[in-house]
């Protein structure tokens, strides 16, 4: 009977919907059954127990089978879409829910979906079999079977083994099929000779478009022009993470300083040509695939040093005028590199689309996973941002494994100067750095006038940094000064922070700057190591007080350094501040000696210091350094590590010094840094070249090792050698005075400024450096 009420109309619509869904499901199901039974003649099982939907490897009527499979797959898709759209019309309808549940057998939709997946898999298999069949037919028709015999060529000894591997494993990664591999020996040989390089080129193939030939084509470079507008860079960085928001805020805050620095450097360089490079920046530690533990901690007192450095690297490269692509995910990385689909077993083809790639250890691991063999082929283009440094003994995979230097990091067999550090603590590596805000004259005067003489700020944003062992020296500090903290907390004051400390909570960067401009003292607890905050404090007119470590911290005695690819010993919380800045701006004392600590506090209160920032940590200093690396480190540190063979006297004494220099009448090979900067010294027993060069006012330069790794250098230093061997050891070149034994380096990847031995004296390639810019020699710019 007709029900005129609104509820009756709804009931009618629901009944109609239910009827339509029953009809569609029924027609679809019985159509599917009809198709499967009527097409039974086209598919037969291999055994009586096989499923009627399992296709046999022998295909009858290839094109017909392919068409049938497509029809079945299309019909299943239509049925599922129609059922899905109907169910969405009124999911809340009780009558429809009741009707459809009475009609549908248990799991009907799931069964149809499973059948659809089987059909889809069958279609893929049919396609593979048809391709293989066509290749076989073509081989028989064209008589090319002999052309695909496995070559035995001494120049390609791995070819037969690689073909055997492909026969067994070519289906293990879809990238092989992407490059045309279909299971035939011909396809294996084409792939192994044209995509990879394990087999000789096939004479019957067109050799004019091979990837390795395209790699050699010269590229026309545009000139790089300085940029002061950072809006394009900010857009490229993107958003969605607090870490990226932090980096963008930093870039905006320092934008005017970057613009001023660009103008100064442009004037300094004059009209000098600068190549514009295509550069990929892949920030691996911020990708979801690496875990990205940093982003959630940005607003909770977590470490910011890495994000500070990456923000400044991005800005420096952009301001210098280079063409950047920025990747914050593995998907972006794959897209920018042109990685073939699959699991990373296949190399890239064609030229690498970038001149340089800046990444970190996480990114390097991701590149290895997705670039396959191409990583080794293109590794000279890579620069690794590495906070704590990687020494050559840890970088050389085989040597590290055999001699106990293998760690979770390192072992990448790069040239040591491809690793770029936050501070210049490892001369074997390149010093990348970061920037601190530079004050103008007016700001410096204002700071001097408004300093609070008895105000101290503690370097420790996390409550855990205040635990255990801090009470005694904090009590002494409290007797003389008002103590302030910036410790993160959510609802209540952290119990680890003493009651007399005025805790401001975690402050935004500009508010922290204001606090530092008032404070007289910035005091470290011993951790974190080598962060940017002490430089920012000194730049704002604070004195930085830090603990001396006795014995020094290293991977041998401290958990933080264990597993890092360095044997470096750290004698204080911030070695750069101690060594390169020093008193009166930086004081390093033994916190366990209460008298020494108290005396330091009194001295600080009496002292008056000006804000100070080393030139190498200004925007101009970083631009100058990065510019020099990009224009000059194209091949020397990355790809060209050949040993030098020489004859004749190369070195002469440097006036008023024990060092030797390159002889002026000898034509110097092209090198960067130039050989005019070289100072050849011999260390003492047990002394590294880092120490030997540092004690004479120079710095060790690993790029110069190849010029002193010869008998002429030993003769110049008047070393008595009964035996001169060539070996693989990270302390070579070196000599023993007692034994009259001398050793030269056989593997250039092991040239090491850091190596030392109690039995040997090292040959050390020192160099001069520019004032305030330790990374560059006097003639380097």
Automatic annotation (TrEMBL):
| Its membrane topology | Single-pass type II membrane protein
UniProt domain Glycosyltransferase family 18 catalytic: residue ranges:
175-766
Query: What InterPro entries does this protein map onto?
Result: GT18_cat, MGAT5_Glycosyltransferase
One of the entry's Gene Ontology molecular-function terms is: alpha-1,6-mannosylglycoprotein 6-beta-N-acetylglucosaminyltransferase activity
Task: Please tell me whether the keyword Transmembrane is annotated for this protein.
Answer: yes
Q: Which GO terms describe its cellular component?
A: Golgi membrane
| Name listed for the protein in its UniProt record | alpha-1,6-mannosyl-glycoprotein 6-beta-N-acetylglucosaminyltransferase
The organism encoding this protein is Oryzias latipes
């Amino acid at each position: 009977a007709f029900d005129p009420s609104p509820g009756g109309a709804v009931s009618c619509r629901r009944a109609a919907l239910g009827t339509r869904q029953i009809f569609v499901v029924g027609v679809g199901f019985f159509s599917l059954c009809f198709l499967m039974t009527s097409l039974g003649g086209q598919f037969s099982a291999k055994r009586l127990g096989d499923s009627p939907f399992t296709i046999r490897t022998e295909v009858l009527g290839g094109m017909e089978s392919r068409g049938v499979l497509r029809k079945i797959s299309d019909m299943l898709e239509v049925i599922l879409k129609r059922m899905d759209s109907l169910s969405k019309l009124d999911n809340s309808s009780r009558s429809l829910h009741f009707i459809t549940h009475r009609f549908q057998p248990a799991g009907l939709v799931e069964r149809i979906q499973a059948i659809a997946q089987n059909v889809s898999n069958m279609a893929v298999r049919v396609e593979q079999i048809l391709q293989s069949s066509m290749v076989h037919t073509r081989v028989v028709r064209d008589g090319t079977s002999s052309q695909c015999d496995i070559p035995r060529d001494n120049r390609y000894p791995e070819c037969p083994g690689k073909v055997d591997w492909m026969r067994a494993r070519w289906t293990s990664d879809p990238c092989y099929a992407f490059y045309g591999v279909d299971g035939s020996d011909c396809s294996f040989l084409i792939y192994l000779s044209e995509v990879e390089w394990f087999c000789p080129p096939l004479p019957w193939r067109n050799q004019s478009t091979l990837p390795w030939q395209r790699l050699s084509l010269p590229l026309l470079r545009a000139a790089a022009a300085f940029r002061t507008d950072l809006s394009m860079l900010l857009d490229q960085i993107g958003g969605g993470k607090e870490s990226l928001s932090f980096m963008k805020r930093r870039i905006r805050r320092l934008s005017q300083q970057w613009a001023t620095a660009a103008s100064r450097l442009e004037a300094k360089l004059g009209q000098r040509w600068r190549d514009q490079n295509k550069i990929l920046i892949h920030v691996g530690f911020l990708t979801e695939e690496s875990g990205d533990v940093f982003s959630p901690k940005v607003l909770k007192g977590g470490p910011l040093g890495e994000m500070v450095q990456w923000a400044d690297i991005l800005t420096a490269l952009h301001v210098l005028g280079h063409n950047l692509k920025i990747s914050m995910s593995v998907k972006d990385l794959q897209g920018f590199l042109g990685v073939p689909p699959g699991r990373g077993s296949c190399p890239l083809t064609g030229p690498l689309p970038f001149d340089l790639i800046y990444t970190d250890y996480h990114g390097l691991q991701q590149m290895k996973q997705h670039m396959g063999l191409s990583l080794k082929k293109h590794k000279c283009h890579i620069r690794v941002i590495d906070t704590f440094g990687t020494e050559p003994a840890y970088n050389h995979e085989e040597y590290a494994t055999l001699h106990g230097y293998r760690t979770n990091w390192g072992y990448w067999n790069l040239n040591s100067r491809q690793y770029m550090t936050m501070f210049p603590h490892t001369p074997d590596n390149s010093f990348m750095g970061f920037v601190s805000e530079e004050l103008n004259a007016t700001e410096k005067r204002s700071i001097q006038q408004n300093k609070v003489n008895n105000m101290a700020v503690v370097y420790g944003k996390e409550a855990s940094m205040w635990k255990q062992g801090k009470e005694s020296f904090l009590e002494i500090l409290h007797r003389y000064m008002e103590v302030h903290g910036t410790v993160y907390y959510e609802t209540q004051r952290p119990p680890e922070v003493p009651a007399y400390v005025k805790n401001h909570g975690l402050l935004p960067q500009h508010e922290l700057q204001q606090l530092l401009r008032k404070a007289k003292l910035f005091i470290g607890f011993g951790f974190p190591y080598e962060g940017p905050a002490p430089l920012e404090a000194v730049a704002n007119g604070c004195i930085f007080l830090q603990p001396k470590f006795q014995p020094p911290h290293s991977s041998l005695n401290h958990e933080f350094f264990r597993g890092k690819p360095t044997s470096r010993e750290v004698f204080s919380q911030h070695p750069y501040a101690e060594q390169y800045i020093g008193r009166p701006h930086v004081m390093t004392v033994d916190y366990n000696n209460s008298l020494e600590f108290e005396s330091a506090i009194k001295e600080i209160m009496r002292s008056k210091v000006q804000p100070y920032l080393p030139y190498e940590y200004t925007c101009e200093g970083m631009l100058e350094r990065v510019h020099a690396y990009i224009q000059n480190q194209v091949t020397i540190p990355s790809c060209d590590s050949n040993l030098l063979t020489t004859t004749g006297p190369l070195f002469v004494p440097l006036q008023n010094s024990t060092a030797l220099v390159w002889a002026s009448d000898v034509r110097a090979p092209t090198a960067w840094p130039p050989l005019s900067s070289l100072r050849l010294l011999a260390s003492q027993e047990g002394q590294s070249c880092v120490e030997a060069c540092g004690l004479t006012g120079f710095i060790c330069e690993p790029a110069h090792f190849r010029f002193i790794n010869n008998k002429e250098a030993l003769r110049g230093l008047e070393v008595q050698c009964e035996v001169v061997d060539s070996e693989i050891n990270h302390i070579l070149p070196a000599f023993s005075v007692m034994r009259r034994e001398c050793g030269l380096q056989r593997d250039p990847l092991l040239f090491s400024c850091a190596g030392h031995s109690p039995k040997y004296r090292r040959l050390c390639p020192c160099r001069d450096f520019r004032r305030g810019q330790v990374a560059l020699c006097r003639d380097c710019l």
